[in-house]
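Subject — a protein and its fold
Fields — amino acid sequence, structure tokens
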Amino acid sequence: MSDHHDDHDTPIKTPKQLIIVVLAAFIVPIIAIVLLVQYVAHDNKTGAGSNAMSAQAVAERIKPVADPVIKDPNAAVVLKSGEEVFKGSCVGCHGAGLLGAPKVGDKAAWGPRIGQGLDTLLKHALNGTAKGMPPQKGVFEDAEIARAIVYMANQSGGSLKEPAAK
């Protein structure tokens, strides 16, 4: 008979090695679980009891919906000037020339646009353009947007006439 005992040798040769392996089998997973819990619990959580649910934070989040604008349909409409609309909305792109927007005062950039006429410029402003101009319809009254276009065009070498209030 041959000795098959050598075919089934294990790396654990002594009882001391066996105790070390058994302890490692328990300790390593426990350390891994503790580290995972620390990783997950480390970030600040938003929810009940956090600052995100404070009365002030909630009021700020719901303000656009909670503060309805009630207008009297019979009241006279006071339109903003072109400069006011420009400073309130248009200056972000047309002041710095972002996304290819013609900068106010740049006669070369505004020249071809002014040549298209106020009606075309107003249509582009209200509906947006494929070149990156977002639609402005509903942000201001159409007449206010037209005034802002006239303001920007006239600051850039144009001589457009401001539309009359309707």
User: Anything to note?
Assistant: The mean pLDDT is 81. The chain has two domains: 11-68, 82-155. Residues 82-155 form a domain with the Cytochrome Bc1 Complex; Chain D, domain 2 fold (CATH 1.10.760.10).
